[in-house]
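Key result, reporting period 2: structure in, sequence out.
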């Protein structure tokens, strides 16, 4: 099994590594570049079609190396990947309205729910809730969760290396767990995505030659939410003491995905409190705060990836020691405290600059 994981990772990495320079050249020849705007963190025209390299490499490797006899639902997962990729690449080339993007994502989510058994089947003991509700409720909950996570990755893709690094971290963490418990099919999906992302990052770290674009961020978000929902669901039905069993798996999943989830929810809430649409674009994301404080793209990415690693280590170390609601409260409180401290630090720095003028 380990050999298949390694070869699938290397296949995706190699294909993406050699494909992306050609994508960059074609994008520049055809003038398919993203121009800087007042919200942008980049200052030069840059291709935003990195998702093409990630998608093609990951799909090829998954199809080539996944044992289809053990993964009958793979075709539906691939269909969902294709839908979100096509929506994303269309938006990268010619902007798509938010409504149409949500429709496309909802279609992909529906395929995952109804055809590939990617499903949240309850509250998994969240706040002591074990009562079963009608299945349509859980269907809606799963589709909503998929949409939130997919768009969360789209929203954190604002500085060089961030969305790719966080995506590789999340998929790599979950891929290791799936490998440990013997679910090689999901481990292959995870590590092919990681291999393609790592190759992409070679061209996305500063100075960035290409951006991931919606085609990449939506794909990475979809892969991540598939893995995380399966992680939660499998753990809930595993016996206590069974190999790889994770207690409080929903909170552990939140800890694994803390940066995209927390930042998206925080930004949506702050926009709503200001009377704005949650989809209104601004510069209030955590990565924008770090840039405004004075960090470079790579410094900000390194800080945020390190913080996400810290939360992953924290939830895995405490999943047996704390009850679910206490661990969730601690994770949310700690994330809120760190963001509040950063926000105040940025305000103080801006005030000092104004005082020196």
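The corresponding designed sequence is given below.
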């Amino acid at each position: 099994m380990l050999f298949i994981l390694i070869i699938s990772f290397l296949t995706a990495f190699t294909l993406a590594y050699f494909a992306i320079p050609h994508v960059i050249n074609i994008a520049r020849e055809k003038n398919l570049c993203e121009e800087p705007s007042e919200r942008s963190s980049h200052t030069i025209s840059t291709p935003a079609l990195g998702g093409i390299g990630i998608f093609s490499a990951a799909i090829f490797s998954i199809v080539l190396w996944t044992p289809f006899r053990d993964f009958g639902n793979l075709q539906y997962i691939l269909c969902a990947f294709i839908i979100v990729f096509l929506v994303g690449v269309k938006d990268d080339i010619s902007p798509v309205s938010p409504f149409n993007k949500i429709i496309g994502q909802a279609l992909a989510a529906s395929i995952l729910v109804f055809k590939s058994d990617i499903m949240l089947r309850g509250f998994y003991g969240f706040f002591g809730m074990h009562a079963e509700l009608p299945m349509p409720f859980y269907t809606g909950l799963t589709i909503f969760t998929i949409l939130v996570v997919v768009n969360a990755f789209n929203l954190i893709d604002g500085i060089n290396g961030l969305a790719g690094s966080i995506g590789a971290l999340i998929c790599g963490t979950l891929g290791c767990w799936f490998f440990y418990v013997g679910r090689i099919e999901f481990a292959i999906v995870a590590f092919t995505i990681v291999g393609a992302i790592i190759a992409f990052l070679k061209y996305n770290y500063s100075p960035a030659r290409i951006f991931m674009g919606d085609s990449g961020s939506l794909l990475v978000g979809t892969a991540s939410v598939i893995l995380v929902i399966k992680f939660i669901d499998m753990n809930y039905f595993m016996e206590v003491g069974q190999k790889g069993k994770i207690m409080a798996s929903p909170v552990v999943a939140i800890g694994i995905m803390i940066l995209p989830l927390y930042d998206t929810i925080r930004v949506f809430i702050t926009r709503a409190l200001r009377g704005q649409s949650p989809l209104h674009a601004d510069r209030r994301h955590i990565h924008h705060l770090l840039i405004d404080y004075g960090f470079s793209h790579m410094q900000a990415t390194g800080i945020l990836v390190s913080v996400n690693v810290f939360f992953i280590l924290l939830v895995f170390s405490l999943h047996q020691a704390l009850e679910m609601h206490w661990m969730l409260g601690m994770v949310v409180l700690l994330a809120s405290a760190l963001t509040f401290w950063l926000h105040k630090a940025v305000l103080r720095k801006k005030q000092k600059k104004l005082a020196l003028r």
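The longest helix spans residues 324-356. The CA atoms of residues 72 and 116 lie 8 Å apart. This case is discussed further under Risks and Mitigation.
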